[in-house]
Amino acid sequence: MKLLRPILAATLLFLYCLHAQTKGASMPVVAQDQAIAIHRFYEECLNQHRSGVLSEIFTPDAVFHAPNGDATGLGAIQQTVDRVHAMFPDHHFVVEDIVVHGDKGAARWTMTATNTAPLGGIPPTGRAITQRAIVFYRFQENKIAESWVQLDQVGVLRQIGIQVPGGPPAASHPSR
Q: N or C: lower Cβ tally within 10 Å for the chain?
């Protein structure tokens, strides 16, 4: 039941926003500002390599929770952004959905890139990958104060040819 609460809350939030959109209701200004902050992070900071906007998007002590550990503060978030740029130089993020309610938000995004750097000790393959994720956010004064990212890491491993125990066969591509 504990696990179902966040899923149920996100589902209800999505349905509420969908209902508001179909009834012609506009998004509150605060929610618009928060949605813009999310979009700016992916479009300006990641896609356009404009890390100078981080301080406009994140609080100084923002916490970024990821499967491989937490990053705290703008410097640590900058290092995370730099790692993404180094691992996937040709990456491109598309924000598929954003839902915002109160001081919380969620986004679903897709990144396309080429595997040109080692992933978890696995040598680069040169293969195209598609990474999908869902990220939850907490805002403070319309800036991102905390985020929790859930990545489809198994999907990426399969795309670069790694067989995951118990999973379907990995993608097989000729060596490049």
A: N
